[in-house]
Amino acid sequence: MNEQEFAELAAGAALDALSPDDQQRYHSALAAHPEWQRIADEDADTAGLLSGGAAPVVPSPDIRAALLARIAITPQNGDVIQTVSAPDTVPEGLPDADQKPLGAESTPKAPVRRLRILFALAACLALLVGVGAGTVAINTYLNRPASVIALQDIQSADDAQQASVTLESGGTATAHWSASLGKSVLVTDGIPALPEGETYELWYVRGDTPVSAGVFAADGGEATAALAGDMHAGDVIAVTVEQAGGSPSGSPTTDPVVVIPTA
């Protein structure tokens, strides 16, 4: 028996799926080649991971269905028929065609290569389940809103600053900015919801000149809004209530409800 054949048997042994004959061949080979113990140990460890399982997070139905379909068509019944062609004439002293040929095994060998394939497929399925939670976390990270990414960039900057004000509603508004990045983000908590047809508009006020920096809506009184455009040192961050879509004139039409100096 070579190492590859033993590896096939080791996979079946780890899954407790060997026939009695192959069990004997497996143990005999392991006794004759103790250096192959590492193969058996690796397969046993993998089988342990399969049995232990991971967090019950279901992978994509399409991926799971494809793997299960592949497993379903992989023969697992151990039926391997070995045939020996009988000669036209049987020499004297040899068994006839109705008898078992000399040297033929009484029990067919189990398809250990198929077991190895099944073992690998099962490991892949377990891996997909195990990484399911990690995939969700990665997708959540990659699909972060632009405002959240901007806020994290600002907070990571060496010159990150912030300032908060109390709103008339009792809520708070906090501006985060980084002059080196030229970015700013407004985070509100408890800002009133606006009726249909109105929106909050962000402004950079530079001296006496307001520059529109986009609009935002408050969901349940909370909002994280990145200001559009580049922030300049000394800008005042302001918020006004405007008609849906923002001020048509490009200038504030109401008194600001939030005013936060950055200087």
Summarize the structure.
The chain has helices at 3-14, 20-32, 37-52, 61-72, 112-130, 132-142, 146-156, and strands spanning 161-166, 172-178, 183-189, 198-206, 209-216, 222-226, 236-243, 258-261. With 263 residues, it is an alpha+beta fold. The chain has two domains: 3-139, no CATH class; 146-261, no CATH class.
List the helices and strands and how they pair.
Blueprint: H1 3-14, H2 20-32, H3 37-52, H4 61-72, H5 112-130, H6 132-142, H7 146-156, E1 161-166, E2 172-178, E3 183-189, E4 198-206, E5 209-216, E6 222-226, E7 236-243, E8 258-261
Antiparallel strand pairs: 1-2, 2-3, 3-6, 4-5, 4-7, 7-8
Would you mind describing this structure in some detail?
The protein is an alpha+beta fold. It has two domains: 3-139, no CATH class; 146-261, no CATH class. It has seven helices and eight strands. It has helices at 3-14, 20-32, 37-52, 61-72, 112-130, 132-142, 146-156, and strands spanning 161-166, 172-178, 183-189, 198-206, 209-216, 222-226, 236-243, 258-261. A hairpin with a 5-residue loop joins strand 1 (161-166) and strand 2 (172-178). It is elongated. Mean pLDDT is 77; it is low at 78-87, 93-98 and 100-110. Its main location: membrane. InterPro entries: Anti-sigma-K/W_factor (IPR051474), Anti_sigma_zinc_sf (IPR041916), RskA_C (IPR018764). It is found in: Cell membrane; Membrane. Residues 83-106, 243-263 are annotated as: Disordered. It is a single-pass membrane protein.
Please state the CA-atom Rg, rounded to the nearest Å: 36 Å
Strand order of the largest sheet: 1-2-3-6
Helix and strand sequence: HHHHHHHEEEEEEEE
The tally of strands reads 8
Give the distance, in angstroms, between the N- and C-terminal Cα atoms.
80 Å
User: Helix tally?
Assistant: 7
Helicity, as a percent range? 25-40%
Largest sheet: 4 strands, antiparallel
The percent range for strand residues is 15-25%
Integer average pLDDT: 77
Alpha-beta content class = alpha+beta
Low-confidence stretches: 78-87, 93-98, 100-110
Shape: elongated
